[in-house]
């Protein structure tokens, strides 16, 4: 499987955190489904100095780039405009 490092930063407008919290249950359902299918390796929220969520980091894996693209088209934080920027890089989890 191809592995990917996903680094995403939230929008910064006044309602950004509330928007994240509203969409979060849907995002977590999707993450759970990815975990069940073996596509989710690890992930979590990035926090600011006040402990508030401002983005996400995930390590995902898919058999094909098309599966990655399908995930991007269905990820609620992307489709519902929680993440303003999403950077995806090829990644290799260390086998130690």
Give the name of the CATH superfamily.
Dimeric alpha+beta barrel
- Oligomeric state: single chain
* CATH architectural grouping: 2-Layer Sandwich
The major sheet is characterized as:
4 strands, antiparallel
Please, could you describe this protein's structure?
This protein has one domain: Dimeric alpha+beta barrel (Alpha-Beta Plaits, 2-Layer Sandwich). Helix content is 36%, strand content 38%. Strands 2-3-1-4 form a 4-stranded antiparallel beta sheet. The chain is of the alpha+beta class. The protein is globular and about 40 Å long. Strand 2 and strand 3 form a beta hairpin. It is built from 3 helices and 4 strands.
Write the layout of secondary structure elements.
Blueprint: E1 2-10, H1 16-36, E2 40-47, E3 53-62, H2 65-74, H3 76-79, E4 83-91
Antiparallel strand pairs: 1-3, 1-4, 2-3
């Amino acid at each position: 499987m191809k592995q990917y490092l996903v680094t995403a930063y939230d929008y910064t407008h006044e309602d950004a955190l509330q928007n994240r919290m509203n969409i979060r249950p849907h995002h977590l359902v999707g993450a759970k489904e990815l975990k069940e299918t073996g596509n989710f390796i690890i992930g979590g929220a990035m926090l600011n100095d006040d402990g508030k969520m401002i983005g996400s980091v995930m390590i995902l894996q898919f058999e094909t780039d098309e599966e990655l693209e399908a995930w991007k088209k269905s990820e609620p934080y992307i489709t519902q405009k929680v993440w303003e920027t999403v950077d995806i890089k090829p990644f290799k989890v260390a086998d130690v």
